[in-house]
Design a protein that fits this description.
About 55% of the residues lie in helices and about 15% in strands. It is of the alpha+beta class. Strands 2-1-3-7-6-5-4 form a 7-stranded mixed sheet. α6 packs parallel to α9 (about 245-310). The longest helix has about 70 residues, at about 245-310.
């Protein structure tokens, strides 16, 4: 994951300018759900202009745009729903900080949704426009992550959506975005357990690399989840007419989930930091054990080297009283071996008795 992920215009560009990204864009897929207390209608649209027929209806409309929206699609949506140019610019310039902004009679929300793509963590920006009877959700992913919400809407006798305003749909989407942090943290938990086992049993250099990579991902995740908690706090306490009082209790539950995720995130960050100390301690312990073994071996060979050094001098003179009598002794060679073996055994016994081995 890159450290800098924000897309921005060149300095000096006029505010509200919509410029397409240079890289290849994912195809845009527009899915519309129009619902009342009696029915739910779902259609796929070829372009944003097809939403016009549903604006005059006395119903609630959810426009889901998947894929990287191009400037033309955003301009069409902006003209139909009277979306502010600065908000459309923030949609196109991804990597925004999660936030809540009010434009006349319209709410503009940016949320961050983390997920695992199989190997690495990714964070996508979800942009939401909320009006009196409509909600526009723009997601850069090809696959729609909000299919579970639609399944709940299709269920018979499910009056949570049909009997409430568009603010309840907003809660359902934000709740899914917030709860997507739990599976990501679960993966982090598994990685921390594996790394902790490796550190205690067999610490290696690649484990240190994994710890640094995990700390980096946790830092990036913290950078987006903290302002997202502030976003939910604002929705929970707002006096805006688009958010009904009976829906704020649901935002309070969503805020509680966000607090739990942040608490888990902070504990994981502390564990990752402590693992660095565990790694250094384990490496130091392994070094000390290696040095202890080498010291014992060297200590054992010191007296043996002394013995063979003495008998390696070969001073032999028949008339000298200082001659080495063992050099001419019939059992001299095996006797030297017996002395060295006795010295080695004595040292090993002594080291074990003192707890050094």
């Amino acid at each position: 994951m890159a450290y800098f992920t924000k897309h921005y215009h060149n300095p000096g560009t006029a505010p509200g300018t919509l410029v397409a990204k240079t890289e290849s864009r994912r195809p845009v897929n527009i899915h519309l759900i129009d619902y009342t207390e009696d029915h739910v209608e779902e259609i796929s649209l070829s372009n944003a202009a097809d939403c016009r027929d549903y604006l005059a209806k006395d119903s609630r409309t959810w426009v889901q745009v998947n894929g990287q929206a191009d400037p033309d699609t955003l301009r069409n949506l902006g003209d139909l729903f009277d979306l502010h140019d600065l908000a459309l610019e923030d949609v196109l310039n991804t990597g925004q900080r999660p936030k809540l902004e009010l434009y006349d009679d319209q709410l503009f929300i940016i949320a961050a949704m983390p997920f695992y793509d199989g190997e690495d963590m990714e964070i996508v920006q979800i942009s939401l426009f909320v009006g009196k009877n409509y909600l526009i959700c723009l997601c850069p992913l090809d696959e729609d992550p909000f299919e579970p919400v639609r399944k709940r809407m299709r269920m018979p006798n499910n009056r949570r959506f049909s009997s409430r305003g568009i603010d309840y749909l907003l809660y359902a989407l934000l709740d899914l975005i917030t709860d997507s942090g739990f599976p990501v943290l679960e993966q982090f938990g598994y990685q921390l357990e594996e790394m902790e086992t490796d550190l205690l049993e067999n610490p290696k250099h690649h484990t240190l690399t994994q710890i640094h990579g995990l700390k980096r991902e946790l830092l990036v995740l913290r950078r987006v989840l903290w302002p997202q908690r502030e976003l939910l706090t604002s929705l929970m306490r707002t006096e805006e007419q688009l958010i009904n009082a009976d829906t704020q209790v649901y935002f309070r539950d969503c805020h509680d989930h966000s607090v739990q995720i942040i608490e888990l995130l902070e504990s994981f960050r502390e564990m990752a930091t402590s693992m660095l100390d565990i790694y250094l301690s384990s490496i130091s312990q392994r070094t000390n054990e290696t040095m202890r073994v080498l010291t014992i071996i060297a200590t054992i060979f010191i007296p043996l080297t002394f013995v063979v050094g003495i008998y390696g001098m070969n001073f032999e003179h028949a008339d000298s009283p200082w001659a080495m009598p063992e050099l001419g002794w019939y059992y001299g060679y095996p006797m030297v071996w017996a002395v060295m073996i006795a010295i080695t055994g004595g040292l090993i016994w002594f080291f074990r008795r003192r707890g050094w081995m």
